[in-house]
């Protein structure tokens, strides 16, 4: 079992930055994908970014590419999402999730592949 707790959400003006963190506990992350998803009012759940814990390779949705950066801190068993140049359309509840990979370096991009989820953190970007 993996427990995930997000932090770092808040209110920011357009063009600003926020840094989200996802702290994992219960077991040490190894061959896992850690993904960030978001859910905005009236929209479906959307993948934002994914990192392979063991290899460090990443995936980004086109909507955030070049603005968001996902990274991992092995010492803290934490995954961070640095969000720059924020836009009002980035407003959503952001969730981190963990998937068990079939092989090292796998990037799980479907929410159906994730077994463990955090409680979410609200990000609001004002225009």
Explain this structure to me?
A hairpin with a 5-residue loop joins strand 5 and strand 6. Strands 2, 4, 5, 6, 9, 10 and 11 form a seven-stranded mixed sheet that branches. The protein has a four-stranded antiparallel sheet with strand order 1-3-8-7, with no helix packed on it. The N and C termini lie far apart (40 Å). With 127 residues, the protein is an all-beta fold.
Overall strand count: 11
Quote the beta fraction: over 45%
Q: Radius of gyration, Cα only, in angstroms?
A: 14 Å
**Major β-sheet profile:** 7 strands, mixed
Shape: globular
Strand/helix succession: EEEEEEEEEEE
Summed over residues and divided by their number, the pLDDT gives a mean of 96
Per DSSP, the total helix count is 0
Helix content: under 10%
User: How far is it from the N-terminal to the C-terminal residue, by CA?
Assistant: 40 Å
**Based on helices, strands and strand pairing, what is the structural class?**
mainly beta
Layout of helices and strands:
Elements lengths: L2 E5 L2 E4 L4 E8 L6 E8 L6 E7 L5 E3 L7 E6 L4 E6 L8 E9 L15 E2 L3 E6 L1
Parallel strand pairs: 2-11
Antiparallel strand pairs: 1-3, 3-8, 4-5, 4-9, 5-6, 7-8, 9-10, 9-11
Keywords:
mainly beta; seven-stranded mixed β-sheet; 127 residues; globular; 11 strands
Q: What's the short version?
A:
By secondary structure, this protein is mainly beta.
């Amino acid at each position: 079992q993996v427990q995930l707790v997000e932090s770092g959400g808040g209110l920011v003006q357009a063009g600003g930055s926020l840094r989200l963190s996802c702290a994992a506990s219960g077991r040490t992350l190894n061959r896992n994908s850690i993904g960030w998803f978001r859910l905005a009012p009236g929209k479906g759940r959307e993948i934002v970014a994914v990192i392979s814990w063991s290899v460090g390779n990443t995936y980004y949705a086109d909507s955030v590419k070049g603005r968001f950066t996902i990274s991992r801190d092995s010492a803290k068993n934490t995954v961070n999402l640095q969000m720059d140049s924020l836009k009002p359309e980035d407003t959503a509840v952001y969730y981190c999730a963990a998937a068990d990979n079939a092989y090292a370096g796998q990037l799980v991009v479907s929410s159906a592949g994730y077994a463990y989820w955090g409680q979410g953190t609200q990000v609001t970007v004002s225009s």
